[in-house]
Sequence to fold (317 residues):
Amino acid sequence: MSADRSEDTSEDAGVGAPAPTGQQFTIAHGPFEATVVEVGGGLRTLTRDGVPVVAGYRADEECRSGRGQQLMPWPNRIRDGRYEFAGRVEQLAITEVPRHNASHGLVRWSLWELLEDERDSVTVRFRLHPQPGWPHHLDLRTTYALDDTGLVVTTAARNVGRDPAPFGYGAHPYLSIGVAPVADVELTVPAATWLATDERMLPAGARPVAGTRYDFRSGRRVGSEVVDTAYTDVARDADGMWRCRVGSEPLGSVTLWADAAFPWLQVFTGAAHEGKGAPGIAVEPMSCPADAFNSGTGLVVLEPGREWTGTWGIHPG
Fold:
């Protein structure tokens, strides 16, 4: 689609009122359709033949529980919003007040600019400028493309500043489980290690999944488990991708895959357990875990002029 064919949602949101997530950019290919939003440059919907593949939200709703949002320049949490980099101590705003953390980056509520808009793909971008706790310049760009298999998402972050910059990326889609109770959903997570956390959801040590309730490598029902867990040591298929699946009746299974840029993923069932929004399980590809700005685990350091890129996708089956 061209830029002047972005969806007008003023009637959905109320007479004369814009959609809470700004402009809506809709793309289509074969049976698939997806909508990307201006606020945060995130994914609002993905459907096949009109049936949700991701558990999104309506155009007249705010984005809740991080649905489809992009998490940059860090995913998850930073302890007390405080970190040291290149000999400087930085203090970010506390955005998760109950746990006193800086959460999910700096761009998920920002207005992203439409760069390219085709019938089956859309590219949005954002220039992240210096601000309290973040003295760097990054150019961020994400392309959402539909093909015969489903959705392919490619994100790039380029350091356009004068100094090295720390960087991490995460995405927060929820895979749809239809009308199935979350307890009956079969979850497959191809990871051998899980990350224990403390009461503030900050890392408390990596541990093997073998013999624990966190082991979903062979696929099993979620049951009564409430999962909000980061995983690593992922098993990749012959094409180099790891694949995490959720399966439910009568919808069938939905798979999220990711390339070598993503050695981590987070799985979150809480929104489905608590009835917050459309039923779904969040499967979040991540380049690093929580608090990487302090631990250095998985942290990317972007030198001036250098670019990080990563690709992930979603398909039924």
Summary: The helical segments are 10-13, 270-274, 292-295.
